[in-house]
Design brief:
This is Cytochrome P450. Helices cover 52% and strands 8% of the residues. By secondary structure, the chain is an alpha+beta fold. The chain has one domain: Orthogonal Bundle (Cytochrome p450), CATH 1.10.630.10. The protein starts with a helix and ends in a 9-residue tail after the last strand.
Amino acid sequence: MDFAALDAVQRDPYPHYARARRQLGLTFATELDAWLVTRYADVREALARPEDFSSAGALRPDAVPGPRARAELAAGIGAGGVALSSDGAAHRRYREPHTRGLSAARFASVQDAISERTARIVDGLAAEDGADLVERLARRLPGEVIGHVLGLDPQDVPAAVRGGYLATELAFRPLEEDDQAAAAREIAQQQHRMDDYVRSRRAEPRDDLVTGFVHALAPGEGGLTREQRGECVSSLQNLLLAGHLTTSALMASTLLHLLRHREQWEALCAHPELIPDAVEECARFDAPIQGFRRRAVRDTALGGTALPEGAVVFVSFGAANRDPARFSRPDRLDVTRRPQGHVGFGHGVHACPGARLARAQLTTVLDELTRRLPNARLDPGSRIRMLPTMIHRSPERLDVRWQRRRPGLP
């Protein structure tokens, strides 16, 4: 794997997408080792044909852990299937507790938790003159929210969040052997902590998502088998990744682009009724999940390109959302756009079940920040550098400054 070439694509994929769209048919991207699907119509078609394009291997690792790391992982509890990389009946089974646990009927109490936690975090920010909003807000709030939804003890949330980032680094970054082993050890420890929650909820059910996963994946009573525990733990880890990393990434990128495009930020400050549209536009403009792989299960064709059985395609949500055949002036951020049909949260049977949760957090954050810190600006001395990843696209850090409201002043 040429990680230098892959990093270049991941840190700024949009020029690569534009070149691919200008070619006839699909383009094979050696950096991704897959056929790159970039046109809006082709992306929607691929996502609507799960019978032809399997999700198995959707998150195929770019890096192969060494023997020490594999030995550490073997001491964990996971290795069950997950919704993201399954098809058909298995996918429906794994997805059902996500859908039920994040349903509209259960959302009112979650919205209260989002509002309370957002206000508390912004209270702390408002007492200062600036901060790295990736660390202080974008990574913190989604972690607290998904921990609340799952039913985790608040003291366990930071380690669970850290475990998610370590899992992506181990699978997708070239780490030294010692770093691989350390990451794998911590991931295995987190699996055991999740297993503790699974067994606890089996004995004493609660009104939380951990209980929902246990009931859905291991119905009945009595002790859980190792296989059942592995399925529950794997699904919970997958939800932690999806419910935290992607929401965190979207939050950080949204703030980056709004503050970079000053007129858009000021429009939201003056017209907060635009905030819901701004959330959709930012998800279109820079999707947190740039895409997933799919594998052709039979000889087929897509976008005018013949694909043999086993061919791998990278279905790019980020590219589809910048397709000029679908969106006028797609490379321009416009909070008044109302981008109907964007695929920032996916499409089809694998569309993000937590999209409502992500939207609620972004909407609440933008409402608080535009109201309480309207003079927020990017620190002119800081350098913006995007993470090299296709699955939680985000700035590494986001240094923002504002004028602190002094005591006694209106």
